[in-house]
């Protein structure tokens, strides 16, 4: 039975890549800052490979990059309100540094979306007017982050009994165990 649940997680994550309205498309990524204070933000799931590694995009000047450089342990939270389904992931994050890979991904990004990675000022900087942001020509700060899950927790709220399963990677394969909700 846990195999079926794990397969449903994989199906949902892969569906979120293609379907912009899927509830797992946007999820919460938590990192820790330099004072070990949690920082959360909503990010977009961009890719899921066959190993269940995930990818997100960001500006290389963002705080999440600095946080991951200091501490690469991250947590992800996916939630589907309609199904009362929550998936939490404990993982390690790797900043993609291979310039060929970055350029390959960059070429696939729609032109209008590329603008998000070309602001003159870095994300989080104070500005006077959001209509007066300056953008650079011919330069970008695009970066990608690979998320490598180590533990996945599934929680489905339903009656008469909630279902909670923890999955851990063991010798390259995922093993699931029911736990008390």
Q: Which labels suit this protein?
A:
single chain, 181 residues, alpha+beta, 9-stranded antiparallel beta sheet, 4 helices
Q: Count of DSSP E strands?
A: 9
Which ranges are low-confidence, i.e. pLDDT below 50, for 5 or more consecutive residues? none
**Radius of gyration using CA atoms only:** 18 Å
- How many separate helices? 4
H/E element order: HEEEEHEEHHEEE
What is the terminal-to-terminal distance? 16 Å
- Assign a percent range to the helix content: 10-25%
Residue-averaged pLDDT: 95
Give the percentage of residues in beta strands: 35-45%
The assigned structural class equals alpha+beta
Anisotropy-based shape = elongated
What kind of sheet is the major sheet?
Answer: 9 strands, antiparallel
Describe it.
The structure is a single chain. With 181 residues, the protein is of the alpha+beta class. It is 22% helix and 39% strand. It is built from four helices and nine strands, in the order αββββαββααβββ. It has helices at residues 2-18, 63-70, 99-108, 111-114, and strands spanning 26-32, 38-44, 47-48, 54-59, 73-80, 85-95, 142-156, 163-170, 173-178. The relative contact order is 0.18.
Please render the helix and strand layout as text.
Layout: H1 2-18, E1 26-32, E2 38-44, E3 47-48, E4 54-59, H2 63-70, E5 73-80, E6 85-95, H3 99-108, H4 111-114, E7 142-156, E8 163-170, E9 173-178
Antiparallel strand pairs: 1-2, 1-5, 3-4, 4-7, 5-6, 6-7, 7-8, 8-9
